[in-house]
């Protein structure tokens, strides 16, 4: 999970870094007539001869923002804005599609976009673009625990910065071309878009404070494993013992060193958490039969279809609840399949 840049100074540094990166790779300056908000105006851009970039600080007294516009040159000095990745200066209003985030693992700053597109044409929109594209939605949390979904446009520190930016802008252009040519006006694509909207609700359904709760789970991971160990030891059979490995959080070993049950603790119930846990359990299930259990927070619902999938795979779920000075293991949510 990434962290939203909220402080204006942090965002301003990121914006300046973005502008400097483009001045380094798009070294030709050109003036184009760009249409924006119903008007055409002469605008200075940086270009590599094919694609262009323009930045500007826009103050309207409502949502002040840095404008980051991208497009392609044509045979005249006129041009269309392919995509805007504008970033609010003093807040992170979701009426503006762009934002900066930081990857806490690497420290890298990322330019991100929520997928919301404008094009003045029926069929050009957020859910349609995200359903059509191959972009992966990433979770970004603010300091209040609110979760926002977005796609990575580019890492400002990446050696492949130019490639990442141009791939994103190119995908938006290809999408708009597909809409214009009527290629998405099919029942198959409409079904795909409906499925995406259902998937997207899983992001918007994340509770306020879920990021703060996840940090608590991470910081108390050892407490959770200790409580799980004590709980499982209550029902050990003769000769069994409980241990762990560097790859699995808890393992029940039989008297002949056979692995009888494995547990994997996760800090949330998103598809990403559950898919990762399933993969870990499958990889490290080294004996048969071997019971498998995913340990997840109480109170969080599993995404649609996953409870049934876990049952079919024979994977049980165990719920835990953090208390101020202890962890309570609530037991198996369902029995062995």
TrEMBL record:
Origin, by domain of life? Bacteria
The protein's name is: Uncharacterized protein
- The organism named in the record is Paraburkholderia phytofirmans OLGA172
């Amino acid at each position: 999970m990434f962290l939203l840049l909220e402080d204006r100074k942090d965002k301003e540094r990121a914006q300046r870094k973005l502008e400097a990166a483009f001045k380094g790779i798009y070294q030709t300056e050109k003036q184009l007539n760009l249409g924006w908000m119903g008007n055409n105006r002469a605008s200075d851009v940086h270009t590599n001869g094919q694609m262009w970039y323009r930045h500007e600080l826009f103050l309207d007294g409502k949502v002040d923002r840095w404008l980051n516009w991208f497009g392609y040159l044509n045979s005249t000095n006129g041009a269309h804005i392919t995509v805007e990745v504008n970033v609010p200066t003093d807040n992170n209003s979701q009426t503006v599609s762009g934002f900066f985030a930081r990857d806490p693992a690497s420290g890298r700053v990322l330019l991100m976009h929520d997928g919301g597109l404008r094009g003045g044409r029926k069929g050009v929109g957020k859910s349609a673009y995200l359903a059509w594209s191959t972009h992966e939605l990433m979770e970004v949390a603010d300091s209040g625990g609110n979760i926002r979904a977005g796609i990575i446009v580019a890492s400002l520190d990446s050696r492949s910065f130019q490639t990442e930016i141009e791939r994103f802008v190119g995908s938006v252009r290809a999408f708009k071309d597909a809409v214009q040519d009527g290629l998405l006006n099919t029942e198959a694509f409409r079904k795909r878009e409906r499925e995406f909207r259902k998937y997207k609700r899983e992001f918007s359904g994340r509770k306020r404070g879920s990021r703060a709760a996840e940090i608590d789970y991470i910081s108390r991971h050892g407490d959770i494993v200790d409580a799980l160990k004590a709980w499982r030891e209550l029902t050990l059979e003769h000769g069994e013992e409980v241990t762990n490995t560097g790859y699995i959080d808890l393992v029940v070993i039989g008297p002949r060193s056979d692995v009888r049950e494995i547990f994997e603790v996760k800090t949330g119930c998103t598809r990403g958490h559950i898919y990762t846990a399933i993969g870990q359990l499958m990889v490290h299930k080294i004996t048969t039969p071997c019971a498998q259990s995913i340990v997840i927070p109480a109170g969080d619902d599993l995404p649609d279809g996953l409870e049934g999938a876990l049952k079919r795979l024979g994977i049980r779920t165990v719920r835990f609840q953090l208390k101020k000075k202890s962890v309570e293991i609530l037991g198996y949510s369902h029995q062995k399949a």
